[in-house]
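The methods section describes the discrete structure representation at length, but only in general terms. What matters is that the chain and its backbone geometry are given together, residue for residue. For illustration, here is how one protein appears when written out as sequence plus structure tokens:
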Amino acid sequence: MAEHGGCFPPMDLFRSEPMHLVQVIIPIESARLTVSYLGDIGLIQFKDLNSEKSPFQRTYAGQIKRCAELARKLRFFKDQMSKADIKLSAKSEAKAEFNLDDLEVKLGDLEAELTEINGNNEKLQRSYNELVEYKLVLQKAGEFFKVAQSRAAAQQAEVSSEQAAEESLETPLLKDQESTTVDQGKQVKLGFLTGLVPKGRSMAFERILFRATRGNVFLRQSSVDEAVIDPSSGEKVEKNVFVVFFSGERAKSKILKICEAFGANRYPFAEDLSKQAQMIIEVSRRISELKTTIDAGLLHRANLLETIGQQYEQWSDLVRKEKSIYHTLNMLSIDVTKKCLVAEGWSPVFATQQIQDALKLATIDSKSQVGAIFQVLHTKELPPTYFRTNKFTESFQTIVDAYGVAKYQEANPGVYTVVTFPFLFAVMFGDWGHGICILLACLFLIFKEKKYSSQKLGDIMEMTFGGRYVILLMALFSIYTGLIYNEFFSVPFELFSPSAYACRDDACSEATTIGLIKTRDTYPFGVDPAWHGSRSELPFLNSLKMKMSILIGVAQMNLGIILSFFNALYFRNPVNVWFQFIPQMIFLNGLFGYLSLLIIVKWCTGSKADLYHVMIYMFLSPTDDLGENQLFANQKTVQLVLLLLSLIAVPWMLLPKPFILKAQHNSRHQGQSYTPLEGTEESLQVETAHDSHGHEEFEFSEVFVHQLIHTIEFVLGAVSNTASYLRLWALSLAHSELSTVFYEKVLLLAWGYNNVIILIIGGIVFIFATVGVLLVMETLSAFLHALRLHWVEFQNKFYEGDGYKFAPFSFALLGDEDE
């Protein structure tokens, strides 16, 4: 914010900053540096003067493409660092000494090196995984063959022993020779394939093999104890080692195709046991060598990523800035001579000197012989809205902007929201015990401000942290209203003095006001503790809070109408003063302002008049005598006058304004071919802008219907909005009763059992119920209701909210977006 002298700086929030449209003519040799310096200031919103061109037709499309490519490389590095679990270094305060060309070369070299390392590592890892699988095949398949050979040897020994026992001299020699010859002729050489198949597909693999070869295969499988990394996918998979015995080349080709379809990895295998042992030793040696090589490669990759991580933030900032600079340069129009760029944009009036200083500095630093030309343009275009906020007022302004951004220089409700929003919340949340709990939580967020502001928080936590100063005021006002209601977790305390009431005799019961007499002065601040727990508590507090809600509501609605008067004065619009502000004030205060006056008079005089009866019969029988409901002299006459004025105010709002606007439109355009650049028509221009028919043909029917809707909305809204403020009473009552239930039915009930375990359980239930229901759900409920009262009941009296926000070109607003 700009420096202001004196103890009381001007209220910058009441109206948005004065803006003007500026034009800057920049020599092309200093254009990049000029835009860079303007981005450092962050106080000019550039207009797109090349909106008819596509992004590819613009002057600096090539540079933006370069920046996008650099951003892609940086995203690649970030992805690699996150996979390697390497954290980025904190942002260094020192400025990066790189220019875009040097950075492009460096990032290109680093990407090529990292890609090569990754490629080599992938190849080595694949080979390593294949060797691990191969070793498993050698071990498991070797076991198959060992078992098979041992069984074959045993069977051979058994057969030979049987033959020796059966041999006799009578056995013909020729028969032996013939059978031997036949057996040797029938012997067929069996082939086999070994490999691994995923465990989940092993049964289907076996069935398909059986069907494809019509049962002419022999399959053995053995499960691997631990999941292995698949060389193809790089994922851990549970697998089975298989050996398939087959006969013939045709069966072999079928088996190979099935293995390929099921993703089974095949490995060569020797029948000779000595060769198998030799191959296991060889594979183990190669696995060890590959492991050493892979570890060395990963260490080199980690060192390279650490080096990148140290400068990543600086490089990322530089690329983001350069891309935003060229994106802004693309919004400027190039001169026909192609020697200078023309920029137009909105800037606050107070920033003029800063912008001019930046232009001079850019001219000097770029060693340009010609300086940039700065000039203010006159326009009737509506400027953007800009409020200078700080970390305290920003969250309140955000609440208002969520409804709609203020029109240029209209009265800003954010100024009053700073006080009225937390106050209305506190009226519904009045308990100084709960207020202290929220205050402590909020102070924790404020003390951790520096830490949390530099971190990425979750959605809910980020929203809570952003509104920490709103919550701070909500907590302080809740403590204040809690002291007025005299409630500390629903328990009353004699904080400021003893109760004004005492028992008349010993028979006086604590649960009733019968027998209580006033023995001292009135309790000095808030509700007397004697009311709590008495038979009259609810009727008394209901009456108090209901009437208080009406008083607060009428006061806030009056404030909204008064702000519409200041808007009309500021925009020099007497039509809105005479035919909007005055009839609205008369109508609202003739009915509900009068009701508020009756409430105050009744409180001051102690009268027993029925205000419901007074207000109803003010309309139904205005001439009848009031009788015991009369609160002051000449009350009937006053009511008749107010009723008459309220009835007159309705056509006063509806009829004159459309006819006056039509007459103004006719007189303004009669005989005029040209509109002066500067004149007294600003008020008329503003009014026509309100009704969306500026310089177009005046549609009287449209204006009249608009005014009719506006009048009906105000008349009905005066009633419904006043009733809407009764939510203050309803939510305050609900909060108080819930708090009482939790205290009496949970905590006191547990205390009455005289059992430590029950007391601990009761205490835990009370804490969770208080935090979950009263401090979270009730807080959110009261917040939303206060939000509605501001957006609907207060702001619709004066707030247009149809402006657009000032969005300057600023490096500070670039953030951490990855494009």
